[in-house]
Amino acid sequence: MIQCRKPSIKSLELQKAGIELFTGSIKSLDDAAKALVVLETSLLTAYMGIFTFFKINEKLNSSHINEYLIIILLIWLLSVICSSLAFAPFKDKIDLNCVTEIEEVLYKISDRKKKYLLIGFILFIASILLSIGVLWFGSHSSSGIV
Q1: Of 76, 124, 133, 143, which residue is least crowded by CB atoms under 10 Å?
Q2: pLDDT of 54 above 80
Q3: What is the mean pLDDT of the chain?
Q4: Which residues neighbour 84 within 8 Å (Cβ) at sequence distance 6 or greater?
Q5: Is the model's pLDDT at 146 over the cut of 60?
Q6: b or e along 25-39 (b: 16 or more beta carbons within 10 Å of the residue's beta carbon)?
Q7: Four-point Cα dihedral 42, 78, 128, 65, nearest 10
Q8: pLDDT tens-digit profile of 66-81?
Q9: In the prediction, which pLDDT does 36 show?
Q10: Helix pair angle (9-53, 65-85), 10° resolution
Q11: Rounded distance, CA 82 to CA 77, Å?
């Protein structure tokens, strides 16, 4: 027979902190996804405003500039969609009397949110880099440097 010791106050506090960290991570992921969506849409609006106001697509020397811009916009919009999916509600029913089921559902929700948030973030970075690339290479080729 295995006898257990009474848990120390430190281990009970660590266990409590671990539970709070685990249950709070879903809210943290939601907050990060919402912040990313706000950032993406704000920068997309500014990006489109700059391109329209300064008529950059007419100034860049590339025969396929409109196609490049459409691809960048599609990647950017996919980023917004994925980031938005990160805080979409979970629709399955949970038996609140079953701790194991609650834990499994929390892991599923957390994994789904992490996946969509990561994809949205990667697509956002890609769209920014592609935008910079189009501006950089387009401006250099139109000035005769390249």
Answers
A1: 143
A2: no
A3: 83
A4: 33, 37, 120
A5: no
A6: ebeebbebbeebbee
A7: -110
A8: 788 889 999 999 999 9
A9: 94
A10: 150
A11: 9
